[in-house]
Design a protein that fits this description.
With about 625 residues, this protein is α/β, with parallel strands linked by helices. The protein contains 26 helices and 20 strands. Bound molecules: adenosine monophosphate (AMP).
């Protein structure tokens, strides 16, 4: 069936042609066939991305009279974001319906303004349940003329505790109205609503119950809980072009993961209910415009968000409600595009993957968390491709080229390529050198709870156990309880830390951190860690200029590289590109700043190391 054949009002037809909709999606085909002519209740199983807004929006607008200034259409939505999106879509569909007025009402915004809008002749109100109850109690809204009530994402409204509000609202609408309920999943509570408030509803489905889209690939990684964040970074680093949503279970965890990513130089921000509405709007604006590469969100805050072309959904944890996995993964793979949904799970959670497979009727594939070498390769390839496809603005750079050409004239093409790659790439290389295996299955270094480090400072440098501990705490921002088995030898020291913190220390190799004129150099000790023994060597030879962890000359070069990375970095980040991030480049840059500024610089430590605190 085409839109024309459905018999849809010509004004709506004109609008959807302008929107570029050519053929109805499966759920639209079903609603258009039934709801334009019959006055019936329906229960639609459809997730966002299936075109369900138009599936209920078009028949609703078709059935109402925009000349009559009463509220004939009511749409309930779980979140403000979704509500606003629906009202905008309805306005687009109804743009040729003269006099049509769609008003969105939701909490966190002036109720007086919303009351004014409703009174100025709304035909359709899109509301979050809490705010609508408030308006009803204030007698500020008249629902007695409602012909069609839509419950969108009904399962989510119930999840969010709107059960009583829904009962209250539905009781206030006329018995004669039709109710159209849409839900991505069909838990018992949704069935209860359909039984209590609907007359033998017709069941429509955009696919099998709860089933995920075919275009989504489902992968999972098994790690120890303490390695979850590191695994996330690996996954992200392994996907340089990621534009994704990272789902966390709680608001606090969402904020923590976002804060850590930002600190580590990634283009990420948090979206959750503890943020003010304007903060949420700001984050969403940046994400929609792709200024942000990654949105870290709670299930509730990210519900119904319609952002196209999301490449990855990452389940930082599996959702508490197994069925919510469908909602999460449905953010990607929209409109026929390919998407990847990744779950980072612990051994204990891995069993739940089977439950999810049953619900979505799709198989997951288990993957190894990319190791340092995988990430470096991927980044290198990305860099090379970027160089290859970079657009060159001839006119702009013309006047600078001769100088650059002259400067580089003595280098062969091979030399030049090597240097460009090394300049950009060394930071990544250094960061991932000696990086532990994060997979929770092999029982190697990554699996051991602690990692033992070698540091090139010892008694000769005036350090003892306590002063070294203080130094380590400050340099890597770790707590005292995370450092143990500290052994200070004459020219060097050993210490152990939680494996999860290992990369914090390795990252320092990349910085200009000095103590009494000696640049700090951390290495995973070969004594207890297999990877420490082989990992470094593996990369050293591969790319010239990579340098060993201990060669101060090598890192001086890197330091220079950072400066470039720092200024270029922020630019790159704000464009959502990976360039600026480059190896958590900006994150390090920040630390470099602090090292230049004060705490890790030589004078401060020299001074403090002789103080009583350090000689205890
Ligand atoms: P929804 O499931 O309502 O969130 O819609 C998902 C996306 O598909 C939105 O960006 C819609 O604009 C788009 N869309 C909906 N119906 C169609 C259609 N028939 N043809 C093309 N795009 C559509």
């Amino acid at each position: 069936m085409t839109f024309e054949e459905s018999g849809l009002d010509s004004r709506l037809l004109q609008a959807i042609v302008e929107l570029g909709y050519e053929t109805p999606t499966p759920i639209q085909e079903q609603t258009l066939a039934k709801l334009l002519t019959q006055q019936i209740d329906v229960v639609g199983l459809a997730q966002t991305g299936t075109g369900k807004t138009a599936a209920f929006g078009l028949p609703m607008l078709h059935n109402l009279d925009s000349d009559e200034k009463t509220i004939q259409g009511l749409v309930l939505s779980p979140t403000r974001e979704l509500g606003v999106q629906i009202s905008k879509d309805l306005e687009k569909f109804g743009k040729h319906m003269k006099g049509l007025k769609v008003v969105a009402v939701y909490g966190g915004s002036s109720i007086d303004k919303q009351i004014k809008d409703i009174r100025s002749g709304a035909n359709v109100v899109v509301a979050t349940p809490g705010r609508l109850v408030d308006l009803i109690e204030r007698r500020a809204i008249d629902l007695s003329n409602v012909k069609i009530a839509v419950l969108d994402e009904a399962d989510e409204m119930l999840n969010m505790g709107f059960k009583e509000d829904l009962d209250f609202i539905l009781d206030k609408t006329p018995k004669t109205k039709n109710t159209w309920l849409f839900s991505a999943t069909m838990p018992q509570e949704v069935s209860r609503i359909s039984k209590n408030y609907m007359n033998s509803p017709l069941e429509l489905s955009a696919g099998k119950k709860n089933e995920g889209a075919d275009t989504i690939e489902h992968k999972y990684y098994v790690v120890q809980a303490r390695n979850r964040y590191l695994a996330l970074k690996r996954v992200v680093d392994h996907n340089p072009d990621i534009f994704g949503i990272i789902f966390c279970r709680t608001r606090a965890e969402t904020q923590e993961v976002a804060d850590n990513l930002i600190k580590d130089g990634y283009s990420a921000d948090a979206l959750h209910g503890d943020l003010s509405q304007s903060q949420r709007d700001f984050v969403m604006k940046r994400f929609r415009s792709r200024t942000l590469q990654m949105l870290v969100a709670t299930d509730v805050a990210a519900r119904g968000i319609d952002v196209n072309d999301i490449t990855h959904v990452i389940n930082y944890n599996l959702p508490e409600e197994t069925e919510n996995y469908t909602h999460r993964s449905g953010r990607t793979g929209r409109a026929g595009k390919k998407g990847v949904s990744i779950a980072i799970v612990t051994g204990r959670d891995a069993g739940r993957i089977k439950d999810i497979e049953r619900i979505i009727n799709k198989k997951f594939t288990k993957h190894d968390v990319p190791n340092g070498k995988d990430v470096c390769e991927k980044q290198l390839l990305h860099l090379v491709t970027k160089l290859h496809t970079a657009s060159v603005n001839e006119a702009e750079i013309e006047e600078f080229l001769p100088k650059a050409m002259a400067e580089l004239a003595d280098l062969s093409k091979e030399e030049l390529v090597k240097r460009i790659v090394a300049e950009e790439f060394n930071r990544f290389l250094a960061y991932y050198q000696n990086s532990p295996d994060l997979n929770d299955s092999k029982g190697d270094a990554g699996n051991s709870r602690t990692t033992r480090f070698f540091l090139n400072l010892g008694e000769m440098d005036g350090l003892n156990r306590n002063s070294l501990k203080d130094l380590l705490m400050e340099v890597a921002s770790v707590e005292a309880r995370m450092l143990f088995n500290i052994e200070v030898k004459n020219a060097f020291s050993f210490f152990e830390t939680e494996t999860v913190l290992a990369e914090k220390f390795l990252a320092q190799n990349n910085e200009e951190v000095f103590f009494n004129d000696r640049k700090l150099s951390f290495e995973v000790s070969q004594k207890r860690s297999r990877e420490g023994g082989s990992g470094g060597g593996g990369y050293k030879g591969g790319f010239s200029g990579g340098g060993s962890g201990r060669s101060s000359g090598g890192y001086k070069g890197n330091g220079g590289g950072y400066k470039g990375g720092e200024s270029g970095g922020y630019k790159g980040r704000s464009e959502g590109g990976y360039k600026g991030r480059e190896g958590s480049g900006t994150g390090y840059a920040g630390r470099k700043k602090s090292s230049e500024g004060s705490s890790f610089s030589k004078p401060k430590y020299s001074e403090r190391s002789s103080s009583s605190k350090y000689s205890n």
